[in-house]
# Entry
Amino acid sequence: MTRSLSSASAPSPSAAAAPLIEAAGLGVRRDGRWLVRNVSLSVRPGEIVTLIGPNGSGKSTTVKAMLGVLSADEGRIERRAGLKVGYVPQKLAVDWTLPLTVERMMRLVANHPRAAIEESLAATGVAHLVGAEMRNLSGGEFQRVLLARAIAGRPDLLVLDEPVQGVDFNGEVALYELIGRIRRETGCGILLVSHDLHIVMAETDTVICLNGHVCCQGPPRIVAESDEYARLFGPRARGALAVYAHHHDHAHLPDGRVVSVDTDGTVHDHLHDAACGCDGEGPSHHDHHHHHHHGGAHSHPPHGTGGEAA
Ligand SMILES: Nc1ncnc2c1ncn2[C@@H]1O[C@H](COP(=O)(O)OP(=O)(O)OP(=O)(O)O)[C@@H](O)[C@H]1O
# Structure
């Protein structure tokens, strides 16, 4: 059933490096049922691998089994010796009614030096919140703190399970841009879990489409065009992956500025936010013709049914 889809374009620069983490034929069985089976995937340094799939398709289970958080019943997991992992789980078992400052949260698992804490909070755009109470943070601020905590230990591998949950659409774009920047600046590998189809793809090298098993995998554009993907997500999702990736010509800075980015990655620090169509359009007509129908919703119906478009 597993289909490996390849494109005609050159392999990603990391293709030659040994994987940081690798699963081969991974299976997890609970209560007499296989939650996932026959899952094989790897993440190499500098590579972004994104797991997509419907609710309950085994994305979190796969990630947890790869990290050793839960035990696998079949297959093989290999992690590079001494691998440092920064993990943002989908759910945190913490009582958020208790007082806990951002600074203490940053030290909860590992006692990072003050400088590392400040540096990573600054990198995720929330340095000013170091003394704030976790319970008072907005959804987007909360996710930024979790991301800061994950990068504070300078991981070789970042594992982010739905890192933009509860984050508004602009915040979502900014967070994905930030994750891309972390990859470029630190060279770490990133394993991302998402069920958002339209936006996660901008910087992803490999998309793995899960549905209890690996349904298909490959570069985003190729996956988006595959029949397996259309069967899993329906024909309306088809354009979603590809279109965003095609027009990745600008970046959103944490302070809200939009800068243009050349195809070679050069950033130009001039504003052209009036020309940015990223922040409210439905995915299937995200073609950068600069029309502005701002639906504003987190999940965009492909044809503007939730927005002002009649
Ligand atoms: N410990 C467990 N025991 C039994 N079933 C489990 C256990 N953990 C998860 N499941 C089930 O396994 C399936 C896969 O769950 P998982 O959390 O991996 O899905 P997911 O793809 O991450 O979903 P979502 O998009 O909703 O987060 C679900 O049907 C879930 O109910």
About this structure: Residues 7-11, 242-248, 270-310 have pLDDT under 50 and may be disordered. The longest strand covers residues 33-43.
